[in-house]
Amino acid sequence: MEENIINENFILEDKKNNRNFLFFEKPHDIDNCINIILNFKKLKINNEENFSQIINIYKNNIIRDIIKIQKKLDLIINNSLNNDNNKKELIIQWELDLSHNYFKEISIDNILSILIEKNIIKEKENIFHINNLKTLNLRKNCLTKFPYINKYKLNNLINLCISHNDINEIIFNKNNIDNSNNFVAKINHDNNEGILNELIPNLKNIYLQNNKIESFLFLRYLFNHHREITNINISFNKISHLNHLPSLKNLKYLDVSFNTLLYYDYEDNEYKNINVKELEYFCNNENTDLHKNNDFIFHNFLLTLKNYFPNLKNINTKNTLIYNLIKYNIKKKKKNSIYFPF
Predict the structure, then answer these.
(1) InterPro entries from the entry (predicted)?
(2) What pTM was computed for the model?
(3) pLDDT at position 6
(4) What residues contact 190, with CB distance under 8 A and at least 6 apart?
(5) Could you tell me the residue ranges of all domains in the chain?
C-alpha cells in the first residue's frame, strides 16, 4: 500500500478552471522523501502586487489543497512503519515554481512574505515552511536583474533556476540598482565572501544559462568562497573574459559554452601571480614565442582553473574562443569538454 501511495503523483486541481496549484512526487534520488510543488507557472504574473492578487483569488483553493496533501502525507506516514514499529522519518521538501511568467524584477523576500501573510507557507512548521524550500524556479521570465534576497535564510535551498531571462545586473538593495564602477570596487578583493553565502548556505546547483551576463564578477559578488556549490551552468551568456572568477572549492561542473566571445588571457595580472613559476619555467626552457605556444596557454589555463576550482571535474567550452585556443589539447572522446583531475 505504501508503494502505491508514494509513487502516485497526487495532483490537486481547481475544478472551476482546471488549474493545478499543488502536486507532489517522490524523487528518485532520495529515499523516503516527498517533493511538493507550489505551482504558479504560466499565470502572466508581472510583479509582486499581481502575485498577491493571484493569491487572494485562489487562496481558499490553495489552503484546501494543502489540507488534502497533509492528509495524504499522514496516510503515508501511518503506512511506513519499520520493523520496530517506529515511524520512519519522512523528508518533506518543496519547490516554488514561478516560471513562465513576466517578472522583470523580483524580491524573493516579498514573495515569501506574501505567502506567509496569506497563510500559504510558514516560517516554521507546516508542510510549506522556509527551511524546507529546496528549489526556486524562475526560469523563462523577463528578469533583467538577479532576484533580491536579504531577509530570509534559505537553509535547504539546493537548486536555483533562473535560466532563460535577460539578467545582466544585480540589485544591491530594493531601491539602489547596480552601478558598474561600484560593483567592481565592492568585489575587487578575492577574499571577500559572496553576499548570498550565509543566506543560501547549502546551495548546490545554479542555472543561469541563456541570460545576458557579461562577467564572472557577477558570480564572485554573489557566491565567492561558497562551500557547497557543485554545479554552475552559465552557458549562452555574453561573457568575454575568463577573469574575476569566484573561488569555489567544491565546484565540480562548469558550463561556459556558447559564450561565443569568451577568451582566456594568460597575461592578465590576476593570473600572473598564480602561474609565476610556470611562466618562469617556460621562459627559461622554451625558445618559441609564448604567445604562439599552445601548450603553454593550455597549461596555464588548467592551472588557473585548479586555483579557483580545485575539485573541478568537467568544464564545457563548446563554441567559445577558449575552445578554439585549446582544442588540440582536449581529449578526442568529447571535444567540447575538459576532464579532471589532470
Answers:
(1) Leu-rich_rpt, LRR_dom_sf
(2) 0.85
(3) 38
(4) 220, 224, 247
(5) 1-139, 179-342
